[in-house]
Amino acid sequence: MESYTADEDSTHTLVATFLYPNCVCTRFAVSSLNSSLSLSKPLSISSLSASLSLSLSREQLLEFAMAGRRRKKMKLLDETITDNKRKGTTEKHESLELQTWSDIPTELLEIILSRLTLDDNVRASMVCKRWQSTAISVRVVNQSPWLMYFPKFGNLYEFYDPSKRKTHSLELPELNGSRVCYTKDGWLLLYRPRSHRVFFFNPFTRKVIKLPKFELTYQIVAFSCAPTSSNCILFTVKHISPTIVAISTCHAGATKWVTVNYQNRLPFVSSIWNKLVFCNGLFYCLSLTGWLGVFDPMERTWSVLSVPPPKCPENFFAKNWWKGKFMAEHNGDLLVIYTCSSENPIVFKLDPANMVWEEMQNLDGISLFVSFLSSHSRTDLLGILRNSVYFSKVRFYGRRCILYSLSDCRYYPRKQCYDWGEQNPFENIWIEPPQDFSGFS
């Protein structure tokens, strides 16, 4: 018999001739095998069966046949899996192409929108209804400070909300005979000249926190944070001579003030016209002539920085110019605002690395609320112009607050003549309002 090399299909045919010699399918398979082979003598079922019986037993042939079937099934299974993978990949690509921005998972969308500024959050809320509901749920809207007015007579105090141009009123007999000194975190620091009594007062909760008596004559005083905190520290500086200042500190629950005299390396005159700000754990004091003193309450050290005063036009130093000078802090930056009745305000920021005051052309979206005794900075406010300075003055019968926009380089209402010397610096102060307005009329 001529020799030939059998593939998998011909091998199955050989096995079939031995196992099922009388089957019609076997005959057809042998016939197909003869057609595919170029042999001089065709193969017959009997010859194939006899050849296999000499070399293999029936059990071996059955095992061989079953192995072949398994290989064929595995091959078909592999082809099916490959086709399914290819089909699944195609469907996945098609589904990805059909996805829109509204299909972003809610958890991921909340994380993204929570990191946006108020303006960007509002813009993102216009993408679709789902984005709008998510943007509103994570939107952070800060509250504008209110301008609190101290009446000349009586106990009715007014609070002006510049964002809504609305005035609220409160009867506060607890403040009778007192003078406001400072405000922070919704708390007032007050002083009664006749009794030398110093105390904290929250006008919205009516809570009073008493402090040891202390005589505040021609000096200013500030505190670091709300008196309900154990970290609250009070600070005041008094001029003794051009080279010596007396610094007094206290805290809620103390029985007395602690006073220490410090030597000035540079001339520094402390007066009631100075400005105080607590920033980065330090008390900064801006003198009448623009020099900056720094007190570290932890180390209990005092120094006058060798930073030249901010450069201003000569006409800034006109009559009552010191009433138009303010200082604030924002996220660790120290800001000074100089104003004059005949000039637009100038804003400076301290560059601690180079020890210079840099003039700012814009406030990077910040809104400043400045008053003679204390000032505040805010971002993400509704109804408030960004990049603007709000002053403690109200015109047009209390219906509009005076502000200066650094973006537009103009006052609102449009400037006619704002003489800061006309105003009593102790008649009002900015204060943080409560979230709940139900107690106001």
Automatic annotation (TrEMBL):
Residues crossing the lipid bilayer are: none
A Pfam family assignment: Beta-prop_KIB1-4
List, alphabetically, the InterPro entries matched. Answer: F-box-like_dom_sf, F-box_dom, Gal_Oxase/kelch_b-propeller, KIB1-4_b-propeller
Report the superkingdom from the record: Eukaryota
F-box domain mapped to chain residues: 98-153
Listed PANTHER family: OS09G0392200 PROTEIN, REGULATION PROTEIN, PUTATIVE-RELATED
Protein name per its UniProtKB record: F-box domain containing protein
Tell me what organism the protein belongs to: Trema orientale (Charcoal tree)
